[in-house]
Amino acid sequence: MQLTKEQQHIVHATKGHILVDATAGSGKTTTLIHCVQHAIKNGISPSQILMVTSTESAKQRLDELLHATRVQPTTFEALSRKIAQGFEEKGLLEEAQYFSEEETFQHLTAAITDAYERSGQSIENEDFSHSTIYLDALLKRFNVFKNTMKLSDVLKQENSYEEIVDILAIDKVTLVTFEAYENRRKKLGFRTSIDMVYDVVQAIEDEFNGINFFADNYVLILVDEFHDINEAQLRLLRVLAGKYTRVIAVGDAEQCINTALSADPVLMQHRFDEEFPAAQHLPLRESFRFGPHPALIINSLFKKIHEKRGKFCVSKQKRKTEIDIQFYESHSSTEVVDTLLKWESKGNPLPDAAILVREFAHTIPIESLLIQQKIPYQILGGKPFFRASGGIVFTRAFTFGC
After folding, report:
1. Do the beta carbons of residue 214 and residue 239 sit within 8 Å?
2. Within the chain, what is the greatest distance between any pair of CA atoms?
3. For the whole model, what pTM was predicted?
4. Distance, CA of 229 to CA of 145 (rounded, Å)
5. In whole angstroms, what is the distance from residue 126 CA to residue 154 CA?
6. Helix (H) or strand (E) segment spanning residue 247
7. Using CB atoms within 10 A of its CB, is residue 2 exposed (0-12), middle (13-18) or buried (19+)?
8. Residue 260: pLDDT band by 50, 70, 90 thresholds?
9. CA atoms within 13 A on the CB side of 261
10. SS3 label, residue 287
11. pLDDT at residue 400 tops 50
12. pLDDT over 70 percentage in the chain
């Protein structure tokens, strides 16, 4: 494949950090693969190159593309688990078992009881407070605390409970429950996937005074889908890079889908420069995914939301794209499925259709309607809602309520 001039510029830039602001279909991953190949060609060992991404599905694709280079891509979760195990072996971190989120519920229940006792309050609805729905929601809130590092940062300032509650806009019982849960987690020795990154970052920031345990480990770190990382992952990246490792991060803030795991476009738009000063900002604007008509629509939107950044895209495809824009006053999910059925009635095969959503959470009402209509479907890059843990919690609760 012939690289565009923008891609070549990124691949052949050999000094300093680089943040690539890309548009959809502009060859982000392809560019990173060529960066790896160029680095190896210029004498960097594959073992000194780290390729990391946010999701397992993205990692699997990188596995295939990087196979010949002997560079082994990883996810932030897998990477932090490996680091945590190394810290445990060196006695730098307490040993802990890996728990799924569901396995933590009994300890979360105990933490709730402890928190109410410490707060001198009684649980108004004990059945609900110990229900799977409540525990799942509470654990997700705790995960937000960890992924964003906000509570950790506030606690370091030695604020009072009242000040912390005011700063973070949470109630005191939630704060005390979090502390009780964390005490139980450390005492009993277990970690979830979220805790892997959180504990490693906490250990380095709080206990090791910023000692760089990863100096000379890597010469080059590449981050794919950078728009989907969270604050804790960004801090881990900063530690891994140290003073001398180059970082090349590629992303598209408009494609951020992991908000449930606290991914935030602001990290790409502002925080990268704070952690990696003097980074070059290079664009990837030429898209191979669509023709000129969608490009015009996208640029119209970019003009409204990115007036200062001046972001735009250019179509590399000459094919014509038929566009039919519909506006829904309400029940848009119903309209989407109705449109799909009308499209099928014209002789079009359903496997050729795709429904694009902003976030995975937006698939829930559409999935429900597809199931009602007995239309088979699959979710690319994730699990169908009714097979994921949130859906399992919902269907269990719904069944028990009947």
Report:
1. yes
2. 69
3. 0.81
4. 15
5. 30
6. strand 246-251
7. exposed
8. confident
9. 19
10. strand
11. no
12. 88
